[in-house]
Write a structure and sequence with these properties.
mainly alpha, Arc Repressor Mutant, subunit A, 2 domains, globular
């Protein structure tokens, strides 16, 4: 049986105050409480784009403690969040490739048959991705 210290419970309560998950918000991704800013968004801005947590807090008018909680949540759930971010990247790449018949000069699809079926792309992508 795993025993937890009072510090573990206090940390979980603190994270619960800053991070929430709802199927109705961002597809159930963990987000900063009261916002639509996902933990993965914070990770992207901070680790991939090199923005400091202070810069992100200032730009989005967020408490710094919420951003630290988001990073703590990320490190506690790193494999799952990294996998979800990779899946999102793959979906965006597939959607971008599907738009290759878009006439950027005219701002129109060359013909209606060229319009990508994004729902079909997502279904196919969901079938092909590893579980």
């Amino acid at each position: 049986m795993v025993e937890y210290s009072i510090e573990d419970y206090v940390m979980q309560i603190s994270l619960d105050q800053h991070i929430e998950t709802s199927p109705a918000v961002r597809g159930g991704k963990p987000c900063i409480a009261g916002t639509r800013i996902a933990v993965s968004d914070v990770v992207l801005m901070h680790l991939r784009l090199g923005q400091s947590l202070e810069q992100i807090a200032g730009h989005y008018d967020l408490p710094l403690s919420s951003l630290h909680a988001a990073m703590t949540y990320y490190y506690d759930n790193r494999a799952e969040i990294d996998r979800n971010m990779q899946e999102d990247d793959a979906f965006l790449l597939a959607a971008k490739e599907a738009q290759s018949s878009f006439d950027r000069t005219a701002g129109l699809w060359r013909n209606r048959d060229d319009l990508p079926d994004f729902a079909a792309i997502r279904r196919e992508w969901d079938r092909e991705r590893p579980t």
